[in-house]
Known about the structure:
Layout: H1 6-44, H2 49-77, H3 79-99, H4 103-110, H5 123-133, H6 141-163, H7 165-172, H8 185-197, E1 212-213, E2 216-217, E3 219-220, E4 223-224, H9 241-258, H10 263-274, H11 278-306, H12 308-325, H13 332-346, H14 349-359, H15 366-380, H16 383-394, H17 399-419, H18 425-428
Antiparallel strand pairs: 1-2, 3-4
Helix pairs in contact: 1-6, 1-8, 2-4, 2-5, 2-15, 3-4, 3-5, 3-8, 5-15, 6-11, 6-14, 9-15, 9-17, 10-11, 11-12, 11-13, 11-14, 12-13, 12-14, 12-17, 14-15
Amino acid sequence: MATPGVSGTRSAELADLRLILTIQALRAFLHGFGSVVLGTSLVRGGLTDVEVGVVFTAMLAGAAASSIAVGLVGDRAGRRRAYSVLLLVMGLAGAVFALTDSLLLLVPAALTGTLSTDPNESGPITSLEQAMMGNAPPAHRARVFGRYNAVAYLAGAVGSLAGGGPAAFRELLPALPADRTWLLAFPALALICVALARRLSATVETGTATAVAGGVVAERGRGWHGKRSGGPARTPLNRSRKTVARLAALFGLDAFAGGFVVQAFLVFWFGRAFGASPELMGVVFFAAGLLQAASSVAAGRVAARIGLLNTMVFTHLPSNVLLMLVPVMPSLGWAIAVLLARFALSQMDVPARQAYVVAMVDPEERTAAAAFTNTARYVARPVGPVGAGLLMQRVAMGAPFAVAGGLKVAYDLLLYATFRRVPFPEERVSSPTS
């Protein structure tokens, strides 16, 4: 017989998950659409290359700063309230980009951290979603995060294809609005996202997803599964501070290495090395998005069998070897094949990583843990492209792949050595007694 109240909580959690996945799909579509439309609309609006760079730098800086803010005060303000506010701000920021080309207005909009050209990583909103989905039962957490990422990859790919629509249709109907005007899709879909977010139940909030056994709420370390009954205000991270700091440092190393081979650089490199056209690489990256979506779903099943940490490490290691092999391939076809094989494996660690972070901390620490580990990635990643250019110029054409792959292998080995004997908090808690 089910424990009273547990079945109702599980139903609410499933409904919340559906809402979050729907919002994620709408956001990923917008960011995929914006990744195509945004750059061209800024240039056509009269901004110089430097000014466009300033806008995109503001986006990265805003994602990092706002993620830290969410980590510090998100739970105190309430996850649902913070989520709704950020979604609304995303719509307003998109409206600014749709209605003006003034740098004085575009930079503050970019600094909100709610806009992104990466459908799968969008600053503070992503951190809140990961914290809320952390309430899923441990046995299903990896699959939940796998679906979450698969939705992002698929919706983002569709958004990217849709981003080319305005320019294509304008050749047939010249009277269609300019590309920039189509960014009004941001406020329109953001309002739908806010309406969906307001339907989330109280189980997504801190302390409401309780570990119930015989009706007793279990204590974990210095944190509680349930609501606290008074006492001094807690900092966002307590028991898990050192764990989160180690994870953030390691994830920062991985993101720094990934910055050497970002998508824009790969398009540039394949053009220089093999004469590949941007149109061909667009098809390659669309195929890569489909592979990443499939691998995200597969990651949940793999993690259920071998564990989250093993999934993170043992799927990531071979993908890094494949990455280092790309520049030594004898032809364009072989290089693309190896790159796609790498994409089929390289993102399997993402849902496992997200599930691992929320599993390693107490429920009331999940927002801060997700925010701070994500921020480490946002800060470290932009440094890589500069290093890639220097390596190509001063060392060898394929040097960025070797350095990126080598650093990522080091990350995998360090991650495994650091955490292979560290149990999850659930494993450290004895059975509750009345």
